[in-house]
Write a structure and sequence with these properties.
It is a single chain. The protein has a single domain (about 5-135), classed as 2,3-Dihydroxybiphenyl 1,2-Dioxygenase, domain 1 (Roll), CATH 3.10.180.10. The protein has three helices and eight strands. It has helices at about 15-25, 65-70, 85-95; strands at about 5-10, 30-35, 40-50, 50-60, 75-80, 105-110, 110-115, 125-135. It has an eight-stranded mixed beta sheet with strand order 2-3-4-1-5-8-7-6. The protein is globular, with a radius of gyration of 15 Å.
């Protein structure tokens, strides 16, 4: 089902401060900024080999990440696994009795479709995201 790790999502209080830290501490200079006002989130992404690091800051209390940040503080929020066919992966998970948060896949960044698996679904409390890259998306590109 999973082809490889697509990205790791980190919730942070301030994207600019988090990017500055990654630059100073780890020498990661190349970051793309993405504003998602409809999801009340500010994001920065950087490629590390084949995996994307995603820094996510809520921009209002309406953001799904705001509660996480308030209750748990900054840290790893989710791990995303790439799948070839998200609808088939979701159907397979449902058939196995694995609860999903999303009933249908929805648009993600970088021309992807995404869906989340419930963190209490045997994933040891880790929120799992399924990611399907749609045709026409250049592998490894971080540009939307």
């Amino acid at each position: 089902m999973f082809t490889h790790v697509d990205h790791i999502g980190f919730v942070v209080a301030d994207v600019d401060a988090a990017v500055a830290h990654y630059r100073a501490a780890f020498g990661m200079e190349e970051w793309e900024r993405i504003s998602l006002p409809e999801r009340h989130a500010d994001i920065a992404v950087a490629r590390l080999g084949d995996t994307l690091l995603e820094l996510i800051a809520p921009t209002s209390e309406e953001a799904s990440f705001a509660r996480f940040l308030r209750e748990k503080g900054a840290g790893i929020h989710h791990i995303a696994y790439r799948v070839d066919d998200i609808a088939a992966a979701m159907a397979d998970l449902r058939a196995r009795g694995v609860p999903l948060i999303d009933k249908e896949a929805r648009p993600g960044i970088h021309n992807t479709l995404v869906a989340f698996v419930h963190p209490k679904a045997g994933a040891q409390g880790v929120l799992i995201e399924l990611v399907q890259h749609q045709h026409g998306h250049a592998e490894g590109s971080t540009h939307p």
